[in-house]
């Protein structure tokens, strides 16, 4: 009997060690990738200064940012890894080489990501900001440790301020919970704080994702070669080259007059615009016929299909919410992997779910950086200061940590939330979940309709040469007969 207990304890110990090794290897790979990304965007002058103290502080802050960005990447991969693991176990149920892939590993990964995401958001990133801005208390000995002391004091004061604000909010909403939170901080206050942070992240995704889905078409179009109807590329390229040469000659023969300087600034901007247009025309001329006429339409059709699929799945989830209580997002303590697929279409449906989840994450990031409020945070290669890097890491962590809750609330996947991700207070409110689904479907449909109609109108105007009309002519008042005649004359 004792030997059986010893063998069970040994098996549990080996399982824990194996899970820890797998998590460490995964996080190490993501950490190296994130460090390379941040190194590409950071401003090198902040790390190669004459002041050794400032350089050391900036390096420590960069390491903390890399850790936070790695946690954000892990949060993005939580649902795809879980869904694909279930399908792998369904495909190879008795494989010896797949025994390490089990529910305990997935559950532990969810718990670790939840812990590190909140740790980074509440402690590490505020500490990194205070650490870079601190100089030590007045009268104290200068050095790195003096900055550490000041940053820790500021972090404690900030934590007390946040605790007080959230406790007052909980007292206004739930008086009993607020009283208990004074005696039991871990059981009542922290879940309330995590619920508020997750709700903010999910609301941010609600605002950024529909806008990002519409922006994905223009962003993808800028990376591909667009086909042009009724346009002579050689003629347009020659005109752009002549215009560029003319502006270049005018820029080289400037006069010191102040009025000419103002004109020179406008001329310089026009020169850059014409130069970028000439480069785009040269790329279009060098592109093959398949790339020019087939690549762009296929990419646009794929984006359109993914967006329409997301909207249809959300609409279907709304109907399920009205008819079936099991469609509500909820937590799951023990993931039973390898028993049944989380999609009614089997492995193909699971693969589509993974693609949609990653597509929504990319769209939310595009929408976040394209919005007027956050466009200033867009990082630039070799020209992003450390404060901006910290702000970007915090923003990406908020978006990525809310992605599992966001995907499950919209019904993109049926994989229930594991660990503390499923313990948020607002997930059990039917009206909040229903209204969230309706808002997402409405905002996405409106953005998609506007994007498609404006894109079609812009391409038609460019194809018939109406984009070169003077600004005094209202393009909306152009008769259809004139538009048709202009198009027919170009065809002939």
How does this model look, in words?
It is built from 14 helices and 2 strands. With 492 residues, it is mostly helical. It has a two-stranded parallel ribbon with strand order 1-2. The longest helix is centred in the N-terminal third of the chain and has 40 residues, at 2-41.
Which helices and strands occur, and which strands form pairs?
Blueprint: H1 2-41, H2 52-91, H3 103-133, H4 144-173, H5 175-183, H6 185-223, H7 233-252, H8 258-286, H9 289-323, E1 331-332, H10 346-370, H11 386-401, H12 403-410, E2 417-418, H13 430-463, H14 480-491
Parallel strand pairs: 1-2
Distance between the ends: 94 Å
What is the helix/strand order? Answer: HHHHHHHHHEHHHEHH
Question: What is the helical fraction, as a range of percent?
Answer: over 70%
Given as residue ranges, the uncertain stretches (5+ residues, pLDDT < 50) are 256-262, 471-478, 480-492
Coarse structural class: mainly alpha
Largest sheet, order of strands side by side? 1-2
Radius of gyration: 28 Å
Mean pLDDT: 78
Largest sheet at a glance?
2 strands, parallel
What characteristic shape results from the CA principal axes? globular
* Number of DSSP-assigned strands: 2
Strand fraction equals under 5%
Q: How many helices in DSSP terms? A: 14
Task: State the main characteristics.
2 strands; two-stranded parallel sheet; 492 residues; 14 helices; mainly alpha
Brief summary of the model shown:
With 492 residues, the protein is mostly helical. It is built from 14 helices and two strands, in the order αααααααααβαααβαα. Helix content is 75%, strand content 1%.
């Amino acid at each position: 009997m004792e030997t059986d207990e010893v063998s069970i304890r040994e098996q549990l110990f080996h399982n824990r060690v194996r899970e820890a090794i797998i998590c460490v290897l995964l996080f190490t790979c993501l950490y190296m990738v994130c460090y390379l990304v941040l190194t590409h965007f950071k401003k090198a002058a902040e790390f190669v200064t004459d002041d050794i103290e400032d350089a050391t502080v900036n390096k420590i802050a960069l390491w903390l940012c890399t850790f936070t960005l790695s946690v954000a990447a892990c949060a993005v991969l939580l649902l795809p890894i879980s869904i694909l693991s279930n399908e792998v176990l369904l495909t190879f149920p008795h494989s010896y080489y797949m025994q390490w892939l089990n529910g305990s590993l997935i559950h532990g990964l969810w718990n670790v990501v939840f812990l590190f995401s909140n740790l980074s958001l509440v402690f590490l990133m505020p500490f990194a900001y205070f650490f870079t801005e601190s100089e030590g208390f007045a009268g104290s000995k200068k050095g790195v440790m003096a900055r550490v002391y000041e940053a820790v004091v500021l972090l404690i004061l900030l934590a007390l301020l946040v605790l007080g604000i959230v406790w007052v909010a909980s007292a206004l909403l739930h008086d009993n919970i607020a009283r208990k939170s004074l005696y039991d901080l871990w059981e009542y206050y922290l879940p309330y704080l995590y619920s508020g942070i997750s709700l903010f992240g999910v609301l941010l995704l609600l605002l950024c994702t529909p806008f990002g889905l519409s922006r994905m078409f223009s962003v993808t179009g800028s990376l591909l070669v667009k086909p042009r109807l009724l346009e002579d590329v050689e003629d347009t390229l020659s005109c752009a080259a002549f215009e560029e040469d003319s502006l270049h000659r005018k820029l080289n023969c400037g006069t010191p007059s102040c009025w000419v300087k103002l004109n020179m600034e406008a001329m310089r901007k026009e020169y850059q615009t014409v130069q970028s247009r000439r480069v785009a025309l040269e790329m279009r001329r060098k592109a093959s016929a398949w790339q020019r006429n087939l690549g762009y339409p296929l990419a646009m059709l794929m984006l359109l299909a993914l967006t329409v699929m997301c909207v249809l799945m959300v609409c279907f989830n709304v109907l399920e919410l009205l008819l079936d209580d099991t469609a509500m997002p909820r937590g799951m303590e023990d993931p039973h992997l390898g028993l049944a697929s989380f999609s009614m279409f089997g492995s193909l449906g699971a693969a589509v779910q993974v693609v949609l989840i990653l597509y929504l994450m990319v769209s939310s990031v595009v929408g976040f950086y394209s919005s007027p409020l956050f466009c200033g945070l867009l990082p630039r290669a070799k020209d992003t200061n450390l404060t901006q890097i910290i702000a970007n890491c915090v923003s990406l962590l908020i978006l990525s940590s809310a992605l599992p809750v966001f995907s499950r609330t919209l019904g993109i996947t049926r994989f229930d939330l594991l660990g503390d991700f499923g313990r948020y207070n607002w997930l059990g409110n039917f009206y909040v979940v229903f209204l969230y689904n309706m808002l997402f479907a409405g905002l996405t449909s409106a953005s998609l309709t506007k994007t498609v109609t404006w894109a079609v109108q812009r391409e038609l105007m460019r194809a018939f040469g109406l984009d070169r009309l003077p600004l005094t002519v209202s393009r909306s008042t152009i008769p259809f007969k004139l538009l048709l005649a202009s198009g027919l004359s170009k065809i002939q």
